[in-house]
Structures are given as structure tokens and as C-alpha cells.
Amino acid sequence: MGKYVEDSKQLLEYVGGKENINAVSHCMTRLRFVLNDPKKADIKKIEAIPSVKGTFTQSGQFQVIIGNTVADFYNDFAAVSGVSGVSKAEVKQAAKKNQNVLQRIASVLAEIFAPLIPAIITGGLILGFRNVIDSMYVFEGGHTLVELSQTWAGIDHFLWLIGEAVFHIGIPVGICWSIMKKMGGTEVLGIILGITLTSSQLLNAYAVASTAAADIPVWDFGFAQVHMIGYQAQVIPAMLAGFVLAYLERLFRKIIPSVVSMIFVPFFSLLLAVMAAHFVLGPIGWKIGAAISAVVYAGITGPIKVLFAAVFGGLYAPLVITGLHHMTNAIDLQLANDFGGTMLWPMIALSNIAQGSAVLGMVVLQRRNAEKQEVNIPSMISCYMGVTEPAMFGVNLKYTFPFVSAMIGSCLAAIWSVFNGVESFNIGVGGLPGILSIKSQFYVVYLIAMAIAILVPMGLTIAIGKARGVDKESAPVEEDVVERTNSIELQAFLSGQTIDITEVPDQVFADKTLGDGVAIDPTDNVVVAPADGVITTTMPDSKHAVGMKLDNGAEILIHVGLDTVSMNGAGFEYHVEDGDRVKAGDKLITFSPKEITDAGHKTMTMLVVTDPAGAKVDFRTGRQVSIGGNIGVVTC
Fold it and tell me: With 491 labelled, which of 53, 125, 351, 587 sits at a CA distance of 20 to 30 A?
């Protein structure tokens, strides 16, 4: 009998029995269930099981956090339940049945736009910087820096090279590429399709409105003429074209013999997709995109704009929890393209600020609780810089009232922002730095909106927290213990920037559910052992993580990237096996940063001490380290 048989029996009962399990698999730390009826899972009883560290639901999967002994637990659970596991991809596919239509659409949009966000944010910051130097008439008697200095004028001119590449060309090309990547198609065909939508041979989309109908160039086929119009910055036409190309390639792979498929599949797929894009899908997609943005613009500028702002500003944070917020990326881009700016994104940035300000209220309330501050302060800082998950999941949702306070502050700030017509050039950094993407004429108004988003959530959180006695909570008094002497220095397992574990954008790590730890944003690609010890756990299928038992008895987990289990081992190579004895500096895992980022994941790598009850840790974060440098001490 295994160690986890009794716990497995309880888990089987509390998830609703064998008949309620559609699929189950595990990653390095979690069991991943797809339940036929998620409501049958008794979460309170499940989280009371001794070996369970927590639960959460994401993308239709009910995930039970076990830790780095999850493989042993999984084996016992399979024996007890009689349920055979499936691959992570199959679990992901099965989980779609637990998603409603909106969640499925949001999931698709998220997978398409996630790889594009870094470029879009970069472009937004560049436009914001250009806004400061060429549109702010506040220097030397009402001039801009560009007017006063040829150097600034040259910088402004040069930076538009990147801005145009991101928004005019990069969006259609990136969307077509991302769709082909998601659909398992030939990615370079997606890139070429995107280029045909933005070719210099075509009339630029921004010049269509000012060009007389008779002057628009055409392809003249004798029997028909087709306008040669570009689709710069267009979202919907690029998405329609990308999906058509993906499905055409699938079709031709099925019907064309494999001996000539390399020649004819890409030829017919691309040719027909480009024809469809310019003859049919482009004009239709243009009208659909224009209609969507017109409806949103009417709501945000018309008679109901205050109500629109109140609803969107108040409910954006709950949308983040459901994942539906990803739908706003496409709408923001379309608004910016059609109207020269977006009033939607400033409200998103204000919502992030409001969540960070609620945590600031908790910082004030719990200032005497050093243990709580270890989570509060890093979560607040990361939220103000645009990463909301640690704040929302690690602090605000745990107490509920800070989350509601943030929603109220976000609602009021959004009303003020929309009432005054605040616009940004495009998507930017979703926190305090977001003001750089706001059009300069709205700076003062937006600063007031930011003040509302800071003061209201913080004030409400403090007031409610005091009424509930949260400010009187103190850190637990440590029991007297025998002085610990069995300490091991942990060396850097990668070169890069060390990051506090609470700033990791994954609630399981940020909440320290698995234990205290440290993360490194890597500048190299070989993970090495941080100390002497024995390899206790590997994941042969995914190869993205490894467990070790150090010589002083401490157990650690090293996890490469976020959600990289879904890559099924692509881009990862193990240098060790279970039971291997390793020395500090020995190679453990080699990974491909490019394949991880291309898959839409972060390369941030975490080290977690998974037995916090039996170990005391002290990590050094917020600095650049090289492999072998000191990152902390673990004592047992």
C-alpha cells in the first residue's frame, strides 16, 4: 500500500467519485482534473486532506496542489480510483467542455494575442514617449522638444520606425503567424499571409478615407476588378484570413498524397488564402471590426458613457479571474486603429492601480505583521507595475473586502476618465507607468483618475479592515527552538535577476502554497544544482522541473518557466535521472528560451523549498547573479 492511499480515497470521494472524473493527469506539483460536474467537488473537504496544499480552477481544469510528491500521490490515486491518466493535451482538450462559449472565445483570443503582447506594449511605450517629445507644448514658451531640438526631432522620426512596425505591420502579420502556430500549421505561411495584407503595393489602409474612389488602385482581371487595399493595423481581417489559411492547410494535407504534399499543400493553401483575404474576407472583416469598434465607441462616448464606464471599471477585475479580459485586447487594437486612440485601455490600467492600492491599504493595516508584509509589499509593487495576479490572488481575494474596495475605486476612476474623454494611443503597461501611453492633453485629468484609483481603495480597505479588527492581527509568536546549525548555502541555479517568489505571476508560487522560494529571470539556459544532494523527482514527459533532497534534508523543487508543462517536453533536455547524486553546479536541465517564449510562456524559473515546516530559509532577491553566486541559505 502506498503512502497516500487513504488521502487518495478521500480525494476520490470529495471530487464526486469515479463517475464524476472525465480526465486526470498531473504536472510537477498538481493533479489536474476535468470533472463532469465541477459543482460536486467539495473544496473545503478536499483542502482539509493532509497532503493537499490547496485547490483552484483554471481554464476548465480543477487543480489540486500536492507538491513535488505528486507523482507518488497520482500513482496511489490511480490505483484506488481505477482511473487511468491521460496526457496534458488531452486534459486541456477535455476541459473545454467546462467552459462556456465566452470562455472558449476568450481562451482562443488569449492564445492568439499572448505572444504579441510584449511587442504591443513596446510599441505603446514608444508612442507614449513620442507623445511627450512631440505633442507637449510646455517647453520654453509653449514649444515641444521636437520643435526646439534637431536631436529630439531625429529621435522622434527614428522611433516611428518601430511604432509603424508594431502597429501598422506587426499586428496583422503577428496575428496570422500566431493563429498558424496555435492551429499547428506552417508558421512561415502565416507570416507571408500577413505581409500580403500590409504590402507596400497596396493602398495604405489609413489613406483609404482620403482617396477618391476612382483613384483607388485595382487588380484588373478583365472580367472583374478588385481594390488593392491594405489592412494595416486591422485585427478582424487578419484573424479571418489566418483561420482560413490554417483550415485550408489541414484540408489539403488530408487530400493531397504525402509524396507531393511539400509542394502542393503550401502552394494551394497560401494562394487560396490570399485570394480569400483580399477578395472576400478583408472587406467583410473590415466592416465587422468597424461595427464592433463603433458600438463600443458609441457606448463609451454616448449618452450612457457614465454607465458604461461604471460597469466596465467595476467589473474588469472579476473578468481577469474568469479569463474573459483577454477579449479586450482585440477591441482596444480596433478602437485605436479606427479612432486614433482608445478610451478602454486607460480604464484597464486604472483597475490595476486600484487593486494595488487595496493592497497598500492592507500594508497599512498589517504594518505590525512582518509575516504578512512579506506578501503584501511585493504584491503591491508588482501590481502597480502592471502584474495583478499576486495582489489579487495573494491578498485581496483572501480577505474579499480589499477586492471589493478596489472594484469600487476602479469604478469611480473609470467614470471620471470616460466622462473627461481620456484616451491612450494604444495598449501600454497596465499600472502606474500606464500614464506614458495617455495622450498628453489628458495628463492632468488622468492624474486625477489615478488619485481616485489610489485613495478610494486604500481608504475603504483601511476603514473596513479596522472595523473588522484586521489591524490588530499580529504575526504568530515563534516557539523557542534549538539553534539551527545544519545550514546549506544555496547557489544560483541560473544567471539572471533574482525575484521575490511573491512577485511570480502564478498564484500557486506567489502565495507560497508549495513553500517559500526565489525566482530567477534567466539570461542563460542551463539549470544547475544549487547545492549537493540527490535527485528525487523528474518529469520524463515534460522535463520542465526537477525535485532534489539536499544533504541537510531539505527538499526543493526547481520549476522552469510558467505553465511549461503544456509544452510536453519540447525545448527541454534532462541531464539527470531519479536517484542521481549531484554536486552544486552540476547540470540538471537545458531549455530553449525561444521555444518557451514562442509558446507564449515566461522563462522565469522558480526554486521552492517544499518542506517549510522542517526548514528555515533566507533568500536574497532583487539583484543580478551569475551561476554559483549566493542566493540564500536553507537550514534544517
Answer: 53
